[in-house]
Structures are given as structure tokens and as C-alpha cells.
Amino acid sequence: xxxxxxxxxxxxxxxxxxxxxxxxxxxxxxxxxxxxxxxxxxxxxxxxxxxxxxxxxxxxxxxxxxxxxxxxxxxxxxxxxxxxxxxxxxxxxxxxxxxxxxxxxxxxxxxxxxxxxxxxxxxxxx
Length: 126
Hints:
- Residues 92-126 are annotated as: Disordered.
- Keywords: Signal.
- Residues 1-16 form the signal peptide.
- The chain has 2 domains: 1-64, no CATH class; 65-97.
- Helices cover 70% and strands 0% of the residues.
- It has 7 helices and no strands.
- The radius of gyration is 31 Å and the shape is elongated.
């Protein structure tokens, strides 16, 4: 797994400029860049500059401490779990609020409306 992590970092490093040029609304473009889509990185780049083999070489030469990576992974997982707890708590609060008896009552929906038969009888007597 460590090589895949290094490869991901090498790819990100190699395309950082293009990532930064992308607009925040261009999510599809970001995914195209991250998967090294031929639309942005044609095969000729390898022949011209060794682009793809350069990424693999950078990944192989990268030095990462496995313990440090594990520590970062664990701290990020803990942060994600905390955020998940907060989201679930907020979802429950919203659900409880939706289930409460505090309803909006519109003026044409009075709770003490008279029975339809009583209303018709009253109108007929008038």
C-alpha cells in the first residue's frame, strides 16, 4: 500500500499546477486530472518528456516513514469519526424537530373548525 500512497503523492506533485488552475466549480476536470486522463495528458507526453515514467520514478524515490503515514492516517480517521458523530447528532436533531408537535397552522386550517354538517345546518337555518 505504501507505493500506492507514494504514487498518489507523486501524481499530485506532477500536476499541482493544473490542479491549481482549475476552477472550484470544475469538479469533473479535477477528476480527469487526477486520473491522468488522455484529454489532459496525451500519450505523446511520455515520448516528449517522460512525463508518466517521471511520476513512477518520483514515487519509487520518495522517502516516507511508514509510521508517520500510519499516524497521519489514524489522526485523520479520528477527525473524520468526530465529524461523523456531529453530523449524525445534527441529523437526529433535525428529525426530532420535524417530528415535534410544533406545526404551522394556517388561518384556513383552524384546529377547532366546526363540523361540516353543523356548518351546513347553521347556514340553512339562517
